[in-house]
Amino acid sequence: MNYRDRTLTFETQQDLFSPRYVDKGTIAMLETVSFMMDDIVLDLGCGYGVVGIVAAQAVKPENVFLVDVNPTAIEYSTLNAQRNYVTDIHILQSDVYEALGDIRFTKILCNPPYHTDFSIAKKIIEGGYRKLLPEGELILVTKRKEWYKRKCISVFGGVKITEKDGYYVFRSVKNQR
Predict the structure, then answer these.
(1) Which are the contacts of 65, defined by CB distance < 8 A and separation ≥ 6?
(2) Which of 147, 110, 105, 146 is nearest to 23 (CA)?
(3) Whole-angstrom Cα distance, residue 74 to residue 171?
(4) Domain residue ranges of the chain, discontinuous segments joined by +
(5) What pLDDT is attached to residue 153?
(6) How far apart are CA 100 and CA 92, in angstroms?
(7) Beta strands 2-3 and 6-7, pairing class
(8) 21: number of Cβ within 10 Å
(9) pLDDT classification of 11: cutoffs 50, 70, 90
(10) Helix, strand or coil for residue 61?
């Protein structure tokens, strides 16, 4: 994968989401995001670390956090950070926001599991509002539109939706009510 004139390589395995190539939804989401050097970024449900490792190319690596409930995802995120010479990022095993304590973010990025019920997505969106700093952004990518649109509006008071390559990228800003 190329990002900012740099080739990033990722190793993965069959038990992780999109094991053969970087998911098109993840790429669509990353193509819509602008990182600022002082952003504090959370890659929520990091899988093998693509979003967090890309973010670490644009922001201070110590301001990048990757979390996943799956220990294999943590193992491969750590391996891929090393492969791409990314140091000082934080990679934690966590069920959604559980292991993050009082840390607040300017950007939370997530490609949620949308082939299941919406219980995890509900935790991501509702918890995301609490974990964001004022004016922070929750950025999600899915193939489903209506439920995510309604939920983001009910929690954040609004949402901007960009359709890209068959995916919907949702951007909700804390305090946009």
Answers:
(1) 40, 41, 42, 43, 52, 89, 90, 91, 92, 100, 103, 105
(2) 110
(3) 26
(4) 2-6+19-173
(5) 98
(6) 8
(7) antiparallel
(8) 11
(9) confident
(10) helix
Class of the 2-6+19-173 domain? alpha beta
Token match 């990033």: residue? 8
**In a 3-state reduction of DSSP, which class is residue 85?**
coil
Residue 152 dihedral angles phi and psi, to the nearest 5°? -65, -40
Helix (H) or strand (E) holding 25: helix 24-32
Instruction: Render pLDDT for 51-64 as a digit per residue (tens, 0 to 9).
Output: 999 999 999 999 99
Burial 153-170 (b: 16+ CB within 10 A, else e): eebbeebeeeeeeebbbb
At position 108, the amino acid (one-letter code) is I
